[in-house]
Amino acid sequence: MSVIDFPTTHHQGFSVFPIAAFNDNYIWCIQTDGSQRGWVIDPGDAAAVIECFQQRQLLLAGILITHHHRDHTGGIADLLQHYGDAVPVYGPLNPSIPEINHTLISETELRLKGVDGEVLHAGIFCVPGHTLDHIAYLIGNALFCGDALFSAGCGRLFEGTPLQLYQSLTKFARLPESTLVYPAHEYTLSNLKFARTVEPDNQAIVDYMREATHLRQQQLPTLPSSIKRELVINPFLHCTDERLTTILSQHSQQIADSAVTRLKLLRQWKDNF
Ligand SMILES: [Zn+2]
Fold first, then answer.
1. 160-214 pLDDT, tens per residue?
2. How far apart are CA 119 and CA 188, in angstroms?
3. 237-246, pLDDT tens digit by residue?
């Protein structure tokens, strides 16, 4: 297995780079400036993290988990075995993730403490919908949103209600436009195909599709995105205004007369797209 060296994104005081896992997962890594330790978010695959960290001569500072799905949590146990039990694991309250030793149960701002005095300042958001336990981390202006928000899309409704998903997406939409968005999957191109169908007159979707296609042809990530971009091209963030009413009503043969109903119908359409 060889680790592809993806581009690093620089933020104030830290940088972020992805490790590819499985077919289309990204395990995002945060390295604070000058540190020889890195944090990983949603390590579904321990071997990919260990190999990348060996190449970069990094040790593990801590683990952040967004929700309970196996492709986000499956590597935790092996990482703790490899790097030692002193590594903190932050995540939601869920008995199905027994390795979590720092439970985050409410929306708050806090200092995440890692190994060797490593500290990350994080805002925690509870964003149920895809799953009920889903949380997101805002670190500086970097949003790690797991499967709650994708570029040009959002996660399937496995456990939550359309209202919960709507409220969660609204939290993201209210973040500063300069916030960079780090979802856990490379779904951008397939999401854009759906977005183009829903909003055929949205030129920004067509332009972004061209840009994303070019990046994928070079096997580069389309991520991070930004809140500024998502507000323009992500139809799941467009349910508050009525531009989607006609097409959704036509497609579903139901009356798409509220934002939550529009989101529900949009999600159902995408599930079968
Ligand atoms: Zn998931």
1. 999 999 999 999 999 999 999 999 999 999 999 999 999 999 999 999 999 999 9
2. 31
3. 999 988 899 9
Q: Is 85 annotated among the ligand-binding residues? A: no
- Does 130 show up as a binding residue in the annotation? yes
Per the annotation, does 67 bind a ligand? yes
| Residue located via tokens 């989101």 | 263
**Is 60 exceeded by the pLDDT of residue 215?**
yes
Q: Say which residues have a Cβ less than 8 Å from residue 17's Cβ, sequence separation at least 6.
A: 6, 7, 8, 9, 28, 29, 31
Q: How far is CA 157 from CA 11, 25, 160, 185, 217, in A?
A: 32, 18, 6, 16, 30
User: What is the CA(54)–ligand 1 centre distance, in A?
Assistant: 27
Q: Which domains are present in the chain?
A: 9-186 (3.60.15.10)
Identify the H or E element spanning 79: helix 76-83
69 is in an annotated binding site: yes
- Comparing CA positions, the residue from 25, 112, 103, 19 lying closest to residue 62 is 112
CA 130 – ligand 1 centroid, Å: 7
CB 176 within 8 A of CB 45: no
